[in-house]
Specification:
Strand content: 15-25%
Distance between the termini: 39 Å
Shape: globular
Strand order of the largest sheet: 6-7-8-3-9-10
Number of helices: 12
Low-confidence stretches: none
Number of strands: 10
Order of helices and strands: EEEHHEEHEHHHEHEHEEHHHH
Helix content: 25-40%
Radius of gyration: 19 Å
Oligomer: single chain
Length: 276
C-alpha cells in the first residue's frame, strides 16, 4: 500500500529567517493511520503541518527544498484550494476559522464556494453535523459557543469537503480537560469509523497516545524519534527533551518494571491489566 503522505528530504526556511524551521525531514504516513506529532515549543511541528496542505510554500513565503507528496500529488505544484479537498486543516484557535453567522451557514460555506449543487451541500452539512454531534448547535452563532463547541464546528466545517486526511495543530491547547477529551475521542471515532487519516500535533499525550498508531517527536526542526507509542515515548531521550510522556508510562519507568515481561502501559486501565 503506497503512503498517503510522503515527505522527502524536506527543508524550509521562512523568509527573513537565518535558520530553517524544519530540515532534512523524511516521513511516511499510511492511509487510515492516526499519527501524533509532538516535541518542544518551536521544534517545527506547525511548519511541518503547513507543508502538508500547501500553506507552505504557497502562503507562507520562504525557501523550500525536498518534496511533499499527498495522495499522489506534489503540494509544491498544486493550489491550496485543490489540496483542501484532500487535506483538511484545523487551526489551534477555532475562532480564526469560523466566518459565518451561524453554525449551519458555517458548514455550508466551503461546499458553496466549490459551486456544488444545493442538495449536495445540504447532504454534506447534515452528514458533518451528525459525524461531530452538533445538530443542536445548528442555529447558534459561533460567538455563542464554548471553546470545545467551536472546535467541533471547525472540524465539521472541514469535513464538508470530504477530505481523506485531517491535520490538527494543537486543537486542545485552549480547552479545559473535559472538552479536550471530547475532541480527542471524537477524532478517534472519525479515524475508526470512517478510516480517515489523522495527523495530530499535541502535547497532551496522556489523552492521545493510546489512540495513535505512531508518535513522531521533533526537536530543532528534525524528526528525532519515530515509532509505536509505547516504544517511542519510553525513550529516555524523549523525556530529556521535556516532552510530557503519559504519567502512567513514566511511573512504570521509575518503578523499573521489567519490560521483557510487560509492555509499558499508556493508560491506567492498561496498567491495571498488567499488574493484576
Amino acid at each position: 500500500m503506497p503512503a498517503t503522505v510522503r515527505v522527502e528530504n524536506l527543508t524550509f526556511t521562512y523568509a527573513g529567517a537565518r535558520r530553517p524551521a524544519i530540515k532534512n525531514t523524511n516521513l511516511e504516513i499510511m492511509e487510515g493511520e492516526y499519527i501524533v506529532i509532538t516535541g518542544p515549543t518551536g521544534c517545527g511541528k506547525t511548519t511541518l503541518c503547513r507543508c502538508l496542505n500547501g500553506l507552505i510554500p504557497h502562503f507562507h513565503q520562504g525557501k523550500m527544498t525536498g518534496k511533499v507528496i499527498v495522495n499522489g500529488v506534489d503540494t509544491y505544484k498544486t493550489k491550496v484550494s485543490d489540496l483542501s479537498q484532500t487535506v483538511g486543516f484545523i487551526f489551534q484557535d477555532p475562532e480564526n476559522q469560523l466566518v459565518a453567522l451561524n453554525v449551519e451557514r458555517e458548514l455550508a460555506f466551503a461546499p458553496e464556494n466549490l459551486g456544488l449543487p444545493r442538495e449536495e451541500i445540504r447532504t454534506r452539512v447534515e452528514e458533518a453535523m451528525e459525524m461531530v454531534g452538533i445538530e443542536e448547535l445548528r442555529y447558534k452563532a459561533p460567538y455563542e459557543l464554548s471553546g470545545g463547541e467551536q472546535q467541533r464546528v471547525a472540524i465539521a466545517a472541514v469535513l464538508t469537503l470530504k477530505p481523506k486526511i485531517l491535520v490538527l495543530d494543537e486543537p486542545t491547547s485552549n480547552l479545559d480537560p473535559v472538552s479536550a477529551r471530547r475532541i480527542v475521542t471524537l477524532l478517534a471515532r472519525i479515524n475508526r469509523d470512517h478510516g480517515m487519516t489523522i495527523i495530530l500535533v499535541e502535547h497532551r499525550l496522556d489523552l492521545v497516545a493510546s489512540y495513535s498508531n505512531k508518535v513522531v517527536v521533533m526537536n530543532n526542526g528534525e524528526i528525532v524519534v519515530e515509532g509505536e507509542p509505547r516504544v517511542a515515548l519510553s525513550s529516555d531521550y524523549v523525556e530529556e527533551l521535556g516532552v510530557g510522556i503519559p504519567k502512567i508510562l513514566k511511573l512504570f519507568k521509575e518503578l523499573q518494571i521489567d519490560r521483557s515481561k510487560h509492555a509499558f502501559p499508556l493508560t491506567p486501565e492498561e496498567a491495571v491489566n498488567i499488574l493484576t
